[in-house]
Write a sequence for this structure.
């Protein structure tokens, strides 16, 4: 059905080389959706360019997890409006923010010139929607509120040719009280395990070496009789020849079962940095967040994982200033940070999201206090970076070379199995995508230096 529209769009654009550009505002799932959008657009004959201000078709793939995303988007829409006054541009806006009722209203009232609006459950209709917009000059709105089906085999244009993200499940059932994701992504739906493995085998055949399995809560993945759960799936992915590094994001601490820990411990291919989102270190706040674990349970889990999995380090997400959080409760978060010694911390200031349970609370924390706590956490984290880096000096690490370095023209940049950025001298003997063995020699705070062995 969509194939027809792909052909129709090609016909309309016949002979012309039209360009597209996609701006992605959200998480890795959002990024993966953008790769599918790119795949569909290329089948329709559009050619990618980086500068969205020069493109004939612009797609904004939005995120609404925190408020600042909205301001960013409106700024960009304003830029396209100005370009539209001078020449033809087709503007399509999709993603999580478009699933919000109030945003749809705002789009209709303030941005009527947007050509296509689509949601998280209607990505696969893009060819039809673009066709309607460019051939009939219609303003298309394609957003549904119910969970969509899982669409397999959409074309995909990946951002890299050696590392790939593979979505294993959609949606979220956890309803953490601060979070809007379950409202805009719908309920949990797991992909068929055979389909996932087939996709990864094809990637391996195409030369891909690194796979990241994606989902809002990957360890609640539900398979079939043969590949029952996340532990089984992870095990099967590791068996695929050619895949050298396997990663996943995000697991939920409440579902981090022993079978998953064992699979990781027994498979050297699996990344040695695991993301274990803490959110808060205080049991009362965690309860109000609906996280379903206590401070002690989190600490026990982190200890157990570190003791069973050789060379493991942890990364985490933390929210400061959840409604009602007191200074003493925030101290518990700092306490967990000191005890677990996270290698990486993604820190967020609580942002009120309409429709969530926490947004209705009267005891919102004042902005200045939220910022103070943020700065305190940041200071503690940064004081740990050097300490964590020093552990690496003199060690031997496997490095996947990912790009030319941001820091120095004559060097390559790669990542260890614990996701540390390491730079090495450029040489003809190896290239981007290769896995090399290096000895770590220097600590430069945000990266390490290594020598090829
Ligand atoms: N499913 C993933 C998280 C997705 S959102 C998980 O549970 O790990 C990514 C991160 O954004 C969350 O872990 C949380 O730390 C942060 N976040 C979510 N909602 C937020 C809000 N309302 N304010 C501030 N940070 C938020
Ligand atoms: Fe949001 Fe919680 Fe679901 Fe993560 S697990 S997406 S934080 S509701
Ligand atoms: Fe944002 Fe949607 Fe991801 S709200 S964090 S893009 S799932």
């Amino acid at each position: 059905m969509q194939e027809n529209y792909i052909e129709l769009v090609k016909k309309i654009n016949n002979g012309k080389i039209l360009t597209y550009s996609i701006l992605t505002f959200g998480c890795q799932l959002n990024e993966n959706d953008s790769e599918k959008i790119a795949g569909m657009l290329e089948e329709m004959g559009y050619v990618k360019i980086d500068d969205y201000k020069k493109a004939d078709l612009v797609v904004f793939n939005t995120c609404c997890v925190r408020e600042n995303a909205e301001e960013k988007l409106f700024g960009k829409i304003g830029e396209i409006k100005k370009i539209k006054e001078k020449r033809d541009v087709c503007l399509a806006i999709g993603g999580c923010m478009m699933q919000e009722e109030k945003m749809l209203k705002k789009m209709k009232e303030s941005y009527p010139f947007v050509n296509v609006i689509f949601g998280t459950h209607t990505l696969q209709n893009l060819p039809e929607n673009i066709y309607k917009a460019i051939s009939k000059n219609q303003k298309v709105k394609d957003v549904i509120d119910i969970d969509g089906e899982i669409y397999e085999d959409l074309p995909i244009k990946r951002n890299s040719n050696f590392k790939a993200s593979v979505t294993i499940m959609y949606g979220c059932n956890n309803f953490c009280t601060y979070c809007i994701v379950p409202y805009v992504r719908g309920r949990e739906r797991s992909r068929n395990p055979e389909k996932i493995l087939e996709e990864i085998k094809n990637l391996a055949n195409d030369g891909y070496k690194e796979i990241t399995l994606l989902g809002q809560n990957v360890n609640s993945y539900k398979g079939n009789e043969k590949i029952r759960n996340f532990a089984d799936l992870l095990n099967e992915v590791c068996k695929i020849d050619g895949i050298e590094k396997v990663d996943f994001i995000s697991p939920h601490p409440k579902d981090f079962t022993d079978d998953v820990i064992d699979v990781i411990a027994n498979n050297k291919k699996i990344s040695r940095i695991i993301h274990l989102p803490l959110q808060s270190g205080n049991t009362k706040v965690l309860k109000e967040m609906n996280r379903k674990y206590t401070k002690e349970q989190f600490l026990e889990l982190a200890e157990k994982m570190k003791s069973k999995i050789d060379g493991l380090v942890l990364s985490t997400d933390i929210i400061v200033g959840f409604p009602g959080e007191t200074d003493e409760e925030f101290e518990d978060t700092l306490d967990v940070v000191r005890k677990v010694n996270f290698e990486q911390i993604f820190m967020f200031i609580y942002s009120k999201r309409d429709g969530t349970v926490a947004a209705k609370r009267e005891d919102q924390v004042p902005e200045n206090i939220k910022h103070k706590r943020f700065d305190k956490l940041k200071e503690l984290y940064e004081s740990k970076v050097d300490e964590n880096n020093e552990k690496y000096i003199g060690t031997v690490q496997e490095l996947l070379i990912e790009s030319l370095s941001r820091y120095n023209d004559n060097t390559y940049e790669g990542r260890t199995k614990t996701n540390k950025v390491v730079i090495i001298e450029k040489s003809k003997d190896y290239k981007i995508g290769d896995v090399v063995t290096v000895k770590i020699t220097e600590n430069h705070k945000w990266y390490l230096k290594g020598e090829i062995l």
Q: What stands out?
A: The mean pLDDT is 94.
